[in-house]
Amino acid sequence: MYIIFLLIHFLFPTNGREQGPPPEDSGLFNEFEYYYDIYINESMIALPDVDPKYEIVQAVYISGNLKLSERELLIFFKNINTFRYGIRVNNTNLESLSFLKPYIVNNLDDTVNSVEIINNQNLKTIGIDFENCNFCYNNILIINNPKLDLKEECDGIIMRYSSYRTIFGNHADCGCEIKGDFNKFLTTMSPSCWMLFGNVTIDQNSNLALLTEKMINVTRINGGLSVTNTIFTNLSFLSSIEIIQIDAYKSQYLANIDIINNTNLLTLGMKAKRDGLYLTIRDNPKLCITSQDLDNLFYGLSLDSNLDIKLCFNNETSSYWCQLPDSGDLNDMPDGCHNLTGNLVLDNNFNFANSYKLYDLQLIYGSLTITNSSLRTTNMFSSLQRIRSIEDNTIPLNVLNNTKLRKLFSGFTFKGIESGMAPTVENNINLPVYVVFCSFIKTRKAAIIKKNLQNCGDGSNIPVPKYDRTPYNIDVFRGVPIYFDVSHGSENPGGSGMLNNPWDRNSTDVDYSYDVETTTENSEKAVSFLFVTAYVISAKYHPTITENSIEIMNNPYLTKIGIDFEACRFCEHGLNVKNNSQLNLAKECDKIIMRYGSYRTIIDNLVDCGCTIRGDFNDYLSTMSSKCWMLFGNVNLDDKSNITLLQEKMSSVTRTNGGLSVTNTNFENLTFLTFSTIEMIENDPQKSEKTAEIKMTNNPNLIFLGLNAKRDGLYLTIRDNPK
């Protein structure tokens, strides 16, 4: 067996690649990598004697009429998930390739393909879970397998490889490719085509009868759709299509759905969902778009939309859709709206009693104007995700002359605006408008931001707004408990509590709010008794004296805080938690971080909210506790970083709150650093004192990342990594 193994390595070609491991002391050696190509062919009566501990191999070549069973192949490949130089399966008698479990696959030799499956006469199914192959790169080649039916496997292949694939000559391919002019292609298109690749272009030369005949079995378009200059009254000939999609992140080109200048078009008459395309619907004078149409057209990723449409509600309109009258007044807005059509106006007549209606609002098809109001926050829009213009010459977001406004769409719920008009935020003297927010609200035109407290990062210093001691209105949100349910007046302990009810008081009353204090040396095991009062907490003093709204210090018996910080929507300024010897914050950190961002001081408790990086990261790492599960600050890896030390110290880190820099290293990937344990790299740019960045530059040997960390709230730079 050993002689056969040697012959495989030395007699078969290796395409010029060096075989064998690097020196074990080089820093590049990985004990779980097998440093030779694997050949499996019809001359073999047994598989190579490869240690089952190996997870990474070089190239894999499988060919010929194999005498090996599927069970033997399954056991051999059980732990192998990384194929450094690709997979080729050709001219075999295999019926399935389900024994392969790839997670990472790179280019095969000098081709553009990472996986090649060619001329396998008995192959009926591929069986590879491409959805799990998170790092399957480049092209896949599947050709001339006469029994292979791909219809059930196309979703996974398309999701992973998008337009980077070559598939033809099989029993059932992944759809039909449109070649040349669509009207001419349609005449020869097979009626068995169930998916089309390319752009479906319908115009004044299109034949309605031919469209109705040929498109009846098409359920998917992977590409664009254009319907322009037709005389059709509806598009019911496309009613069988379930989805029109493209992977905007991986596709070689972007695509559109364009429905333009159709003078007789009354209704769409199709139910196709859109995912990953631009959308333009305009200049169709008779067309009426329903809420069902919009649900379908905005089903998935919307790159942008250019709409000038008329909306029509009917008896099939879902209850979560609401139509705002021309008044634009909140008082006229129905309850329970998720999607709102119309132009909503909040001004000096804003009615807090009705503001709960905005809490569940997610989408506005129209515009939002906030002008001359006394609002200090827009937290009543806590679920708002997008504003989409549906008519020309209407500013989608107009925030003007609000002297008390201090916060606008805080958090990461709001994702942007789709419009051809520029949003305007102007003359709000206490409102800081940060750079990140400016990028969120940019439409096809740059936002007009001026005369606010801060304007998209102008100047290096952030001005301090005039301190406002008046508490926020606390009746904004649905679900706030009625005061007599949670407190009783001292004069009537068993009564309704109406004598002690600040809900009915004027907001300027000096007794409207008060401070809750406990001694710093107390015997409480939790401060969850504050859950009632912890809905509105402002700083006790002027910010020039202290920046904290809550201080929890020197409580030797405190084991948990217990405050629901997620419900404390108006907890402002800082949090100070220190010197509580039995306090374990591991399970409470998420809500604390969500509410306070970087405005917190948490030290010297039993378990703090992570560890703060001090000074140079490489120096800090040598003394870092192995119990650190979250890091605050910038993780900087460079040519001085020690892989062994990183493996040891970072094994328990699941989150970094700050930046990550990988520059000038010799790493081939970041799996050597056990970074796969990190789940999230995050920073709150709306509350953090400084912005952060993930930066990966000038790493000449870096082949792939190999980390699963998600990014939230950071800039991203990846460049000058040639491999």
Automatic annotation (TrEMBL):
Superkingdom, natural source: Eukaryota
InterPro entries noted in UniProt: Rcpt_L-dom, Rcpt_L-dom_sf, SPS2_domain
Entry keyword set: Signal
Gene3D superfamilies: Receptor L-domain (3.80.20.20)
Annotated signal peptide: 1-16
UniProt domain Receptor L-domain: residue ranges: 193-294, 336-409
Coiled-coil stretches: none
Short name of one Pfam family: Recep_L_domain
Name of protein: Receptor L-domain domain-containing protein
